[in-house]
C-alpha cells in the first residue's frame, strides 16, 4: 500500500468505481480528498458512467477520517479552513452528482468517513462497520459532515453521536438510517453491491438525475453552509487543546 495513500478509478459496463487507500486506517489526506472529489465530478459528466461506487481497500477500516498528520501541521485560519473545505467540496460533489452513488463500507468509519457514508445515496456495510464521530474529543466538532449525517439519521441521533463520541455498531447505524443494509461479511457485502449497481446501470439516466434532485431537496444552501462550517473547524483546529490531543493520540 502506498505510504502516502492513493486513489484509483475504473469504469466497466457503466459502473464507475472510486477506491482509496492509506496505510493509516484509510485516513484521508487533503490530496486524496481532492482526488476523490475530482473523480466524482469527472464521472458525473461522463455519459458512460451510469452509477458510482465509493469504496476503500483492505478488509479492516473503511475510513479513519482526516489525516492527523496534516491536522498537526495547520498553523493559521486560512490553511485550517482550506483543509476542511476539502471535505465540504467532496460532500457537495456527491450531492450535486446526477448519478446514484453507492458507498461500500467494509469496516470502521470515523469523521470524514461517516460523511462519505452519509452523503452517498445508498450505503451498504458489513457488520464490522462501527461508526464514530470523535471530533468533539479532538476539541473541534463534526461541523462539515454534520449536515449530511443529520440529513440521514435525524437531529436526535446526530446529537447522540456528536456528544457521546462513542462507537456505535453497524446495526445501530442501520436502525438510525446511516446504512441502508448490513451484511454478515465482506463477501456478502460485495455480492450485494455488485448486484445493486448492475441493476442501476441499466436504468434511465434522466430518471436517476431527476430522482437525485428530489432526494436532495432542501440542501440548496449547502455551498454556503458547508463553507461556514469549514471556517468553524478551521479556527478550532488551531487550539492547543486539539494539538495536544492529536500528539497524545499519536504517541500511544
Quick structural overview:
The chain is α/β, with parallel strands linked by helices and 252 residues long. It is 50% helix and 15% strand. Helix 1 runs parallel beside helix 3 and helix 3 packs antiparallel against helix 10.
Tally of helical segments: 11
Supply Rg.
17 Å
Estimated structural class: alpha/beta
State the domain count: 1
Give the overall shape: globular
CATH-level-2 architecture: Alpha-Beta Complex
The percentage helix is: 40-55%
The parts where pLDDT drops under 50 for at least 5 residues are none
Major β-sheet profile: 6 strands, mixed
Ends: how far apart? 23 Å
Order of helices and strands: EEHEHHEEHEEHHHEHHHH
**What is the CATH superfamily label?**
2-enoyl-CoA Hydratase, Chain A, domain 1
Number of strands: 8
Query: Which CATH top level class fits?
Result: Alpha Beta
- Rounded mean pLDDT score: 96
Structure description:
By secondary structure, the protein is an alpha/beta fold. The longest helix is centred in the middle third of the chain and has 20 residues, at 77-96. Strands 1-2-3-4-6-8 form a six-stranded mixed beta sheet, sandwiched between helices. The mean pLDDT is 96. The chain has eleven helices and eight strands. The chain has a single domain (6-201), classed as 2-enoyl-CoA Hydratase, Chain A, domain 1 (Alpha-Beta Complex), CATH 3.90.226.10.
Amino acid at each position: 500500500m502506498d505510504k502516502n495513500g492513493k486513489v484509483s478509478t475504473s469504469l466497466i459496463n457503466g459502473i464507475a468505481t472510486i477506491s482509496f487507500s492509506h496505510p493509516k486506517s484509510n485516513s484521508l489526506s487533503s490530496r486524496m480528498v481532492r482526488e476523490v472529489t475530482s473523480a466524482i465530478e469527472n464521472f458525473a459528466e461522463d455519459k458512460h458512467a451510469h452509477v458510482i461506487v465509493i469504496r476503500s481497500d483492505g478488509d479492516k477500516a473503511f475510513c479513519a477520517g482526516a489525516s492527523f498528520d496534516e491536522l498537526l501541521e495547520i498553523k493559521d485560519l486560512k490553511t485550517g479552513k482550506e483543509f476542511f473545505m476539502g471535505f465540504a467540496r467532496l460532500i457537495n460533489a456527491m450531492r450535486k452528482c446526477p448519478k446514484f452513488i453507492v458507498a461500500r463500507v467494509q469496516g470502521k468509519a470515523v469523521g470524514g468517513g461517516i460523511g462519505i457514508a452519509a452523503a452517498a445515496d445508498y450505503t451498504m456495510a458489513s457488520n464490522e462497520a462501527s461508526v464514530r464521530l470523535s471530533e468533539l474529543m479532538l476539541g473541534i466538532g463534526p461541523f462539515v459532515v454534520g449536515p449530511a449525517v443529520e440529513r440521514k439519521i435525524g437531529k436526535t441521533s446526530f446529537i447522540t453521536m456528536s456528544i457521546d463520541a462513542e462507537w456505535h455498531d453497524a446495526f445501530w447505524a442501520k436502525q438510525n438510517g446511516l446504512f441502508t443494509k448490513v451484511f454478515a461479511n465482506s463477501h456478502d457485502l460485495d455480492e450485494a453491491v455488485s448486484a445493486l449497481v448492475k441493476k442501476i446501470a441499466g436504468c434511465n439516466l434522466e430518471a436517476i438525475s431527476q430522482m437525485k434532485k428530489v432526494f436532495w431537496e432542501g440542501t440548496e444552501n449547502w455551498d454556503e453552509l458547508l463553507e461556514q462550517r469549514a471556517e468553524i473547524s478551521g479556527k478550532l483546529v488551531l487550539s492547543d487543546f486539539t494539538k495536544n490531543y492529536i500528539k497524545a493520540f499519536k504517541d500511544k
